[in-house]
Amino acid sequence: MTRRVCVIDTDPGTDDAVALWLALASPELDVRLVTVAGGNVGLGHTLRNARAIVGLAGQAVPIVAGAEGPLLGAFRSETQVHGADGLAGVALPEGPPATPGIAADAIRALLRAEVGVTLIGIGPATNLALALATEPALIDRVAEIVLMTGAWSEGNITASAEFNAWSDPEALAMLLECGRPVTLATLELTAQALVTRERIDALRAAGGGACLDATARIMSGVPPSRRFAHRGHPLHDPCAIAWLIDPTLFTHRDVHVHVECGGVARGRTVVDRWDRSGLAPNARLLDTLDAEGFFSLLTERLAALP
Questions:
Q1: Catalytic-role residue among 233, 236, 256, 258
Q2: H runs (alpha helix) in the chain
Q3: DSSP designation for 249
Q4: Which CATH number characterizes residue 143's domain?
């Protein structure tokens, strides 16, 4: 099996934690670097959380801090979902120290050393955009960009914008126009990965170690969403990881995506699902998810971690 060399850019974040554990547990992915931005909570929390998440998995992956806020505009966290600490109040042991440096520099260094790197973005796109914008010659060394971002119907931070896209729409627009293949897991896709009490109970029943136990506790700590009649909450970021592990769990289509960068619709991703504009596609949109297969994969992989 050829392992996919990848960077995970993240802002942990409850669902980021689960996504990182899924990636680190999966032999299909060779996670060479974890870069961290402010997003769900401030950079001080997200960096500490990333260190703890990687440490609990027993992995030795460099973790490098990056942008505290977006390219333009002000930073805003989302503590109502993730809690003040970003992990729904679930305390994890202190992780290994961060690797000195700046995230964009570390991403560029890896691209200089490797050809065919997959960039996975499960937070605001700032670090990835900065890396590519400041050394465009490296763009051809990127195999694919996979992002959990955007929505084609309604948002979850404003009426029209998804949180990651809204946090730095200029950075997202840069990635969509960089010329490399981009895959999007939007809110409509991640809504199909609904965490319910029954699914948390099934996860716990699988046994496993500290990572699986922490996953169940984190999932239990996230408030059920009124968008889903309080039946549960969507597990956003692991969907982007699952696509790279088992694409047979998904259907998809090629679309053109435009990002609004100003006004009341700032952060809205205008997704042309039916080719009404006639513009050439610039992204692959993940459409449907085999939810039972997804949660089976998640449980199987996390149960194998320490």
A1: 236
A2: 14-24, 43-56, 79-82, 103-113, 126-133, 163-167, 169-176, 187-190, 197-205, 210-221, 238-245, 291-303
A3: G
A4: 3.90.245.10
Domains held by the chain: number: 1
Tokens of 160: 């029209």
CA terminus-to-terminus distance, the chain: 23
Element (H, E) at 7: strand 4-10
Contact 240, 112 (CB under 8 A): no
Helix (H, G, I), strand (E, B) or coil at 67: coil
Q: What is the pLDDT of residues 179-215, one digit of tens each?
A: 999 999 999 999 999 999 999 999 999 988 999 999 9
Look up 236 and say whether it is catalytic. Answer: yes
Torsion of CA 12, 18, 24, 28, to 10 degrees: -120
C-alpha to C-alpha distance for 58 and 133, rounded to whole angstroms:
33
- Rounded Cα distance, 164 and 286, in Å: 17
SS3 146: strand
Query: Could you read off the pLDDT of 282-306 as tens digits, one per residue?
Result: 999 999 999 999 999 999 999 999 9
Q: pTM for the complete prediction?
A: 0.97
Which residues are bridge partners to 284 per DSSP?
183, 254
Q: Are strands 29-36 and 63-65 parallel, antiparallel or unpaired?
A: parallel
Nearest to 52 by CA among 23, 80, 13: 13
User: Looking at this protein, which amino acid is placed at residue 221?
Assistant: G
HSE at residue 209, side-chain half, CA atoms within 13 A, is: 11
44-86 pLDDT, tens digit per residue, is 999 999 999 999 999 999 999 999 999 998 888 877 788 889 9
Radius of gyration of the chain (CA): 18
Closest CA to 299 of 21, 14, 6: 21
Q: What is the 3-state secondary structure (H, E, C) of 93-113?
A: CCCCCCCCCCHHHHHHHHHHH
Domain range for 205: 4-303
pLDDT at 40: 87
